[in-house]
Amino acid sequence: MELSSTTVGIASLIAIVMLIYSGLHIAVALGLVSFVGVLLLKGDFDLGLNLLGLAIADSVSDEAFATVPLFVMMGLVVSRCGLGRDVYEFANDIFRGLRGGLGVATVAANAIFAAVTGSSIASASVFSKVAVPEMRRYEYGKRFTVGIVAGSSVLGMIIPPSVMLIIYAVVTEQSVGAMFLAGVLPGILLAVAFCLAIVLFAAFVPRFVGGVDAPGEALPLGTLARDAVTKLGPVLLLVVVVLGGIYGGILTPVESGAAGTVAAAILGLIKRRLTPQAIWGALVDTGHITANILFLIIAASIYSRMLGIAALPTMFGEWLATLQMSFGAFMVLYVLLLLALGTIFDTASIILIVVPLFLPALEPLHINLVWFGIVTVVGAEIGLLTPPFGISCFVIKATIDDPSITLNDVFMGALPFAAVMLVVLVLLIAFPQISLALL
């Protein structure tokens, strides 16, 4: 019996979810199901192989993809240079007199650190080692401590340069520079929202926050100015090189990634923190991460082409049109889907699976693809803080050296900050100009 394209398309989606949930790597699941789908639809083994070859060629030759290894390398070099600790110490000096000040300092440091790393995992790993011991030393609640580290780590995925924004740009053929620019204000808004939440928690739920005031008076302005130059200056210099180069029209995103990597290495050598072993480790990790992302993009390209052969995106868009959904109803449906998938998939997987399916449905609603990308990344990032996947929470638990803090503590501590992210997501949907104002 010949299967219809609709049956194959829907069955492929169900199969992918089941395979991933069973533990199969997302790229393997996408590629395998897509290949089988083409065979069922066309009955041609050679066509499936040709599709695989075209997907690989198109993915590797896409210039936007070249930004991934460069920004990943820059983030790893920055992490190994200890710049995250420097930024945290400076932020701590600024906010030491504020109730919950170490939490605010963690958010501020994460926001600055995000501007040169682009990875939530890197931020979660660094600040688990830097912020958690310091906050516990001043008797902050353990759930609050790990929760704020988990929550603020997601800033790395929205504040440019962000690897997730690059992946979205590749999938939707949008400008990487435009995606970076659109992420600036939402990233700042999210950081401010986290800080306000900490102040409110300290005022109304003091037992959750805990903590005692850090000893000592506020540092003199001269000391703060010196620390700003020595501790904050290198990171700001990298931000100027990377983002200033892009938006000043001097460098392309690819060139800015390369320039940022070289600048980070030079800073590490000047600070005498970048050893040959650290450089080699960063190179090896960059290769592993880049290969993983490229494998994902290739598999997603095969998947998108298979969906195109099955005409499923077109039929899905037509089905949504028949429902005559308003913009608000459509966004509610989309956000609920992101939240549901976020409990089992990572952000990259959600972008690669969901976005190609929804793209045909966006045009009738006149939805801006750049803004839609910001909403997608923020919505999917909430899943980093929710069980059972919650990869940022797993990274924090694996990194901290405190047996008294359980994985459940990490998830429960992150929950209030996931709620804050949801509020910010609603604001971004209600006011698209927040994302588009700088374009």
Provide keyphrases for this structure.
21 helices, 78% helix, mainly alpha, 0% strand, 439 residues, single chain
Description:
The structure is a single chain. The chain is an all-alpha fold. It has a domain at 64-289. 78% of the residues lie in helices and 0% in strands. Helix 5 (83-95) crosses helix 12 and helix 9 runs parallel beside helix 17 (347-362). The longest helix is centred in the last third of the chain and has 35 residues, at 276-310. It is globular and about 75 Å long.
Low-confidence stretches: none
Portion in strands: under 5%
Shape: globular
Total count of strands: 0
User: How many alpha or pi helices?
Assistant: 21
Ends apart, CA distance between termini: 52 Å
Whole-angstrom Rg? 22 Å
Q: Indicate the percent of residues in helices.
A: over 70%
Order of helices and strands: HHHHHHHHHHHHHHHHHHHHH
Secondary structure category = mainly alpha
Sheet with the most strands? none
Would you tell me the overall average pLDDT? 84
Brief account:
By secondary structure, the protein is mainly α.
Map the helices and strands.
Elements: H1 5-21, H2 26-42, H3 45-61, H4 67-80, H5 83-95, H6 101-117, H7 120-137, H8 142-153, H9 163-172, H10 176-204, H11 206-209, H12 221-247, H13 253-270, H14 276-310, H15 312-323, H16 327-342, H17 347-362, H18 369-381, H19 391-399, H20 407-430, H21 433-436
Helix pairs in contact: 1-2, 1-14, 2-3, 2-14, 3-14, 4-13, 4-14, 5-6, 5-12, 6-7, 6-8, 6-10, 6-12, 7-8, 7-19, 8-20, 9-10, 9-17, 9-18, 10-18, 10-20, 12-13, 14-17, 15-17, 16-18, 17-18, 18-20, 19-20
